[in-house]
Every structure is written in C-alpha cells, then in structure tokens.
C-alpha cells in the first residue's frame, strides 16, 4: 500500500455528508449532503516550497462551494471510521470545527490511499511521503467511460474506477476477465471484443449489463448461470459472434430482454428448442454456423 500512496495524488471524488456535531439534535439543519464532491489534501503554501504537516489542510470542494471548505489535519482529527472502507465508505471526525465528513461512493482503493495519507499527516509523518494535490477549483466528475486498446494501458493494482458505466477493453490478448471488472456495480456496457477469452466467469452474472460485446474471442460456451442471473434479466444487446460456441443451453432463452443478438461465425449445429422465448428479439444473426 505504501508504494501506491507515494505515487497517488491526494484527491478523490466521492459523495459526502457533512454533520455538524455542535447541534446534537438530529435534524435536517445539522446535515448537508453532497452527491458529488472532491476531497483533497493541500498545502497552504506553493507546492514547490518546503512544508510541514502542520500546514496541510483537507479541502472539501462542492458545486455549492467550489473554492472549498478547509479543515486542518495535523492533530485535529479525532477519529477515522474505516469499517466499511472496502465499500467506498468512511468517516472523518474533526475536532475543530466539530464536523463529521461521512464519505460514500468512493473508489475503495483510492479511498484507502487517501486515508492513509490523512493518517500520516495527523501524526506529522506525511512530509516527503505523500503527494499533495493542487487546491481544487471545481468538483471532479466521476469517470464513467474508459476505453483501453493496448495491454500496457490496463490499470493493474490501481484497479478500475468504481464509477464506470461503460468499459471497452479490445485487442489486449486477455485470456480471462479481470476480477476488478466484476466489481463494477454501475457498469452498463462491457466490450471485450478482439481478445483471447476462452471462458466467462460466473461472477459476470451479477452485473446489470445492458450490452455485452464479446465477438472475436475463443469462447466455447455461454454458461447457463449467466442467463439465469442478474445479467440475464438486464442484457439487451449480446454479441457472441466469431467464437467457437458449439451449443447453447435452454437457459440461454431466459434472457427475455435481449433485442439484438449475434451468433454468427460459431460452431452451432442447432438452436435451443425454446428459442422463440426470446420475445424481445428484433435483430438476430446466426450465419456461418453449422445449422441444419
């Protein structure tokens, strides 16, 4: 983790709920919610100047206050609540002002790096060990689309942004789907065409994909668990063309929302008997198979 923190710029995009503990009564008055906010660790002097942890501040930048609210870090954080950090959630409790910053919808890996930097700064050990951010002037929008066309651009340990709704990884010679992809709960479109995939992980069944593009791979089957899971209930566009699929399970036809389906250039000798159950189908291709 430390090597990651050294290279990670101390800025994250997340949801934030600000709670003012000076008003103990639970009411709407002492809570302010920001669906999208930027949190950054910044120095009050210019970046090129020497600094100490005593001069490092956390900046909360929102659409309502793009210049940001400023919180001193050194010896001013009463507690860090990190029980749900793997879910992208945490809470920063400040002494002065008596505010709680309840963080949500953050990328878990980035949140871990950010809070590790906060922890080092609290005890005066951040100097030279963390990479401070420039002072934000606007809220960073969460990254929603990502296209990767060469293997060297894959994120590795850094992971994929949790906010992605559209992901394309083509021509990267992938032999299996990265587990990080299966954790992208907001993903709607997944394009893994022109790779070397031989099988699909069952974890793919839990994604709410609307489009799944898998043409030009080496798949030999489409697991029935994918058709009966959450994926099967949501997918509308499915491209399995140019693979080595020889047979489809009857469960394949439970994907009732599929409107565009391409099975061309496979090794199919027949279609499932209940193929007519694909009641939403509007565009279909199965040319260049072994159908009788």
UniProtKB/TrEMBL annotation:
UniProt keywords, alphabetically: Leucine-rich repeat, Nucleus, Repeat
Domain of life from the UniProt record: Eukaryota
SUPFAM superfamilies linked: L domain-like
Domain PIF1/LRR1 pleckstrin homology: 10-129
Cellular component annotations (GO), alphabetically ordered: cytoplasm
One Pfam assignment: PH_LRR1
Protein name per Swiss-Prot or TrEMBL: PIF1/LRR1 pleckstrin homology domain-containing protein
